[in-house]
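Fold these two proteins, one after the other.
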Amino acid sequence: MKKLLLATCVFSMLALVVIAQNKPQIKFGEETFDFGTIKEEKGPADHKFTFTNAGTAPLVIQGVRSSCGCTTPSWSKEPVLPGEKGYVTARYNPRHRPGPFRKSLTITSNADAPTKVLFIKGVVEPKPKTIADEYPNKIGAIRMRYRSLNMGKLTTEKPFTRSFKLYNDSDKDVKFLEKADKPAYVTVKIEPQVLKPQQTAMLNVTYDPVQKNDFGFVTDRLVIYTDEAEQNRKDLRIVATIEEYFPAMTPEQLAKAPKLIFDKTIYDFGNIKKGDKVTTDFVLTNSGKSDLSVRKVKANCGCTVSQLEKDILKPGESASLKVTFNSAGRRGSQQKSINIFSNDPTSPTQRLIIKGKILETGQ
């Protein structure tokens, strides 16, 4: 009985060996390729990995999946006979991908080991930037990085100045005129006033948040002029985020300050019938020790309207903020925010969220 059992085991093992030997086997000469340094401006780089079918049955590559859209694979589409060679090619596109890279190719086949992973690596040397790359926006002879001049986050402590580069992309001098269309709280100075060909000037913008008298994200129009015969008018936009300034306060001062809290900060309307207006109320409370002043309530969408019951709250006092969302012209899931700006020194800007899903007719 023992001899029979032993013979059966030996036979099974031999059968497995025979089955394994009757399968294709994929053997690569290399499994990782280093491109070294490649130049971005030269475009895609290719490398062909060569393999041999070391098995006794035809080998078929069923697919090759890359780890990144920057790598495009190709491979032998016909069955590779025993002893014959096939290939897998990796094409790496270095555009907008400076620096080191390491990507993989996962190969699926009918081989005894059905999955195989190859790797490519290297370093992309970025292409030198042209003037058009550095200053992509052009109006007449003048190039600039952006037409929106971002002043960043400002406080009401004092006026803030930021400088933006302008480039003369012509072969003639360009003179900036004293004339400018701008709000009263914006001051503009361009140095030098006469800009030589292929040279840069600094557009210095000074913004006074106190005169602006607003909070949160703000935008203003700025037009500057040159002596060019054509396109002498440069339409720009100034953007900024304004917050109230609070000087450093002692723990005792903070303990006596106003403090704004809400009964909730998020409200979900659920399903909303298209075209309907829906309303909810948020309750504001001053849990501090001095009067709370709500400076401004600002929604991020014209579809959302807010109405504050009162903007000065005594210590312990509460007020209602009614928020109405108009679903007309909207579709699908919606999320809108309402920013509340106050004299709470610990949280001068707070955000409420409303959301819901707009149903199409018949849903």
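Now the second one:
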Amino acid sequence: MLELFHAAPSYYSMVARLALAEARVSTVSRLLDIHFAKQQLSPAYRQLNPHMTVPTLRGPDLLLTDSSEILAFAARQAGEQWADADPSRQAGIAEAVQGHYRISIETLTFSKLLSSRPWFKAVVVKVLSGIVRSLDRQAKRCPEQAEPLLAKAAQNRERLAVFTQAPIQQVLSEQRQQVTAYLASLPPVVAGGWLFGRQLSSADVVLAVLCARLEMAGELALLSRPDLQGWWQRMQQRPAFAEADVWTRFQRRRFFKAVLEARHTPITPSGSRA
């Protein structure tokens, strides 16, 4: 049994969900509330994933604590069904995947949100500052776990700096330029094909989730290439896209339903099962 610890609206959880769905890897869903209860910061989850992030994939003799690791695992499980198995395409696919992970999705998402809702900046600052203080306190109480806690606090301080030390419009402009450059770097898509030929690849998975986030943020105009627009339309029609619950818009009802469901998620250390 494979357990996927994830959050419904989480970008990187969507990467994992879509990768596993496309590779036809069955998992048991373990939803987490990363917004209100902040279960990812709990001591129990910290033992499972010291990075305190989602997603995490756990199974017998398997523990993957990053979406890129889960993506690579899915590619191995898919075998010859994915273009990743073709040695002649592996370098290009790896470059496209790595380029995707260099984009700061959170910065893009929040800079767009704050550009249209400046009043929300105070909320973001308050939440991030509260997380930093909580992590610092936990590090003092649990010196044996201080290193990952302080690392997480430092990460949130960096996020605070991004949203408080430069004009939001400047931050958003820089993110748009980064995404535009990434999309321009992708190979041309032949009619009816995928990024690296007639078979799906890891690069298609991450690009699909990126396009979904661009659509949610009202930034899909950045997808200006006609070949990629056609690719995006076909990608959304794949059964795995719906199965993976990839969000192209914020779903308020789904969000709160997932939060309630997360309250019943058993979180146990990596060496045990609920």
